Amino acid sequence: MYPMSDTSYLRVTMSTTTPHVLPFEQPDAFLEGQVMVIDKPLTWTSFDVVNKVRYALRGFTGVKKIKVGHAGTLDPLATGVLVVCCGRATKTIDTLQAQAKVYTATIRLGAHTPSLDAETEVDRWAEDPERVTGLTLDDVKAGTATLTGTLEQRPPIFSAKKVGGVKAYDAARKGADIQLRTSTVTVTAFEVEGMRPEEADGHPVLDVDVTIHCSKGTYIRSLARDLGDHLGVGGTLTALRRVSSGDFHVDHAWRVEDLVAQLNRDNANA
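^ that's the sequence the OP posted. Answer follows.
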């Protein structure tokens, strides 16, 4: 439980209980403020999760107007830790959002997509297939080393960044030529966990499993692109999972359906 009256939840490691404890016996505690750690499902937007939780909380608390928000967007094709706040805990969203993040991801080298993930089809394969098949672990690690530290990162054109008051992904889907400003981010670790040569649509690719520790605002899709560019073969993401955000870890996260079922069950028993 992370009650609004005790902000120690901003500093301490979460309980080993899976999932973390919430005060379902005290509906008023959710009005006072709770921080809920949720494992965002694949293809859901972050706001899909917020809306689902908000609807369940309305029935659970009997209050139609309850504040619910999240502390850091996850792309629809990403899974993992989404920190959702309700009640007065929404006042801590900026603090929670600023905390460091850890991700696991799979980067496909030898292919590029406009969205830098699987949302869009491959628009460019490596010009030299032998360059892909010749990549070694040392080559890839040398590439990740150049993307570690403080970076000026160019966001993906398929992102929520605004250009002239329009979200970049809306403009990108209409085929607009978009130029986004770089932002300063910090990557404290970019670790290669494994590599697998594969074939996609008749083209050789190399799937690289990585773990990334980084600051708020870091786009893992941009790291995939930049690693591919550094190696001269192109790169895109095929999988992304947020393992932790600050002290909140996916091992202690609620599945959306389990959290909603618990709220609905307690509402039915009220």
